[in-house]
Amino acid sequence: VLNRRCVEAAVMTGLALNCSINKKSLFDRKHYFYADLPAGYQITQQRVPIAVNGSLSYSLCIDNKMSQMVTKTVRIKQIQLEQDSGKSLHDDTRSQTLVDLNRAGVGLMEVVMEPDMCCGEEAAAAVRELQLILQTLGSSQAVMAEGQLRVDANVSVHHPGEPYGVRTEVKNINSVRFLAKAVDYEIQRQIEELERGGTILNETRAFDSKLGCTVPMRDKEGKQDYRFMPEPNLPPLILYDAKSLPANLNHQQVVNIDWIHERLPDLPSVKRGKLVERYGILPEHSFTLLNEDGLTEFFENVVKQTQMKPKKVIGWILNELLSYLRQHSLTVKESPVSSFLLADLLNLLEKKEISSTAAKQVLAELWKGEGKTPLEIVTEKKLELIQDQKELEQICQAVIDGQENE
């Protein structure tokens, strides 16, 4: 039975990726003999998918400089609905393959991109932007480490002006970082193979994250006969818009494209623009805020609770707090320094009750998570700035008096 929620999520994703939504799409049965689908076939959309001809804009840094960013676009060939398969777990030690069938048959949305990217960094940036869009829409939680979003990367090399070379497919990549490494490794491997006079096999490969290389999985030379046929249990999927929606139809039983379009949330690109406009921050900082899970909300909470200007707040979050988080491989949601504590610290700094150097010491103490407030740490460590001139003169005189006999 077709899941209505899957159809709505696919339409929403298609609209967000500037696709044309097909009002009539078809389901097909694809037969194959892997052990990870007990039925021996997969329901998919091979002939007429639900959405086609879209585009995804993404940005990446030049030479790792956040201040120099370029925007690129990758074409979206299609979005199709299909069944997920099971998961094969290969135990090389025992020469066994275990099969996890928990997700077999569950609805899956596949986004197919055109070959418009030329390196691992571009592929990673495009997938990260797609991930943010899916999370914004609620189409998927898209946590790659939990298998909610997986990437198959098709890689080929060729000289400019020549036809595309033979491609290999690197399957089931489960992190943006591994995607960049897998693509770059595969590009270099293919170049070196061709320069040695060898040939590239049309094969499926896997990325070994421990070794940092791709390894062969299975050969695609003898192209499999999937014996596609129209799926007999599912009729064509018919969608409507405001113009084509018949008056006598129950609205609960149909999917209205226009109704979904009107309810699309702000996409990441729009959110970035609003952050820049509202807080006067740099465009490149808006990318970091959105790319780090939970960081936008954390930043906005700090801004609400502190008298410091947003430009200075973002500097503290990006330069100081994020370095701690990355050292310990934590997200901002796991940080021992809450937005409330950071706001308190920045208020002490803004009121000139402590110096910038002292503030960094306080942040280091807060990171220990001992339950102390910034003010308690400042008092305990005697980190206050002394504003009283007479008190300063007494300290200086005491230092001079202590040096008289030397």
UniProtKB/TrEMBL annotation:
Residues of the Asn/Gln amidotransferase domain: 297-406
Domain of life the protein comes from: Eukaryota
Keywords from the named record: ATP-binding, Ligase, Nucleotide-binding, Protein biosynthesis, Transferase
GO biological process: glutaminyl-tRNAGln biosynthesis via transamidation; mitochondrial translation
One Gene Ontology CC term in the entry: mitochondrion
MF term (GO), any: ATP binding
InterPro entries per the UniProt record, alphabetical: Asn/Gln-tRNA_amidoTrfase_suB/E, Asn/Gln-tRNA_Trfase_suB/E_cat, Asn/Gln_amidotransferase, Asn/Gln_tRNA_amidoTrase-B-like, GatB, Gln_synth/guanido_kin_cat_dom
Reaction equations catalysed: L-glutamyl-tRNA(Gln) + L-glutamine + ATP + H2O = L-glutaminyl-tRNA(Gln) + L-glutamate + ADP + phosphate + H(+)
Similarity section: Belongs to the GatB/GatE family. GatB subfamily.
Protein name: GATB amidotransferase
Species, as recorded: Sula dactylatra (Masked booby)
Lineage of the species this protein comes from: Eukaryota, Metazoa, Chordata, Craniata, Vertebrata
